[in-house]
Amino acid sequence: MTPEQTSELFTLLMRQEELLKQLIASINKPKVGLHSDAGNCRIYCNRHNGSLWYTLNNSEASAITQTALTGYLKELKFEKCERRGKEVYKLLITIQADVRFVD
Asked: What is the mean pLDDT of each run of 10 residues along the chain (103 residues)?
């Protein structure tokens, strides 16, 4: 092997090592969210619809079967609303994950 070939091989091996490090770093990133659909996802949290978390499609509840929602807390607030003729406060949480979740 010539010195030029050795140098080229060394350069290629260094590049391969850098790509491998990037791949390992992306694999080791913490997983966030419940699914990978793009956009916003409004989820509801109570046990009245057969699961802890669910979404609504045309007023019909659709269960979310995952057991954890992980991400970064972006906003936490209370909203005044009316339920069954009474004024109540609802907790709104916005989480940045694979999509933005509002619970």
From this structure: 90 92 75 56 72 78 78 85 88 76 57
Where do we find the tokens 């509801």? 44
Taken as a whole, the chain contains a residue count of 103
Burial class (CB in 10 A: 0-12, 13-18, 19+), 26: exposed
What is the full DSSP assignment across the chain? --HHHHHHHHHHHHHHHHHHHHHHHHHTSPP-SS---SSEEE-EE-STTSSSEEEEETTEEEEE--S----EEEEEEEEEEEETTEEEEEEEEEEESSSEEE-
CA distance linking residue 90 with residue 97, whole number of Å:
22
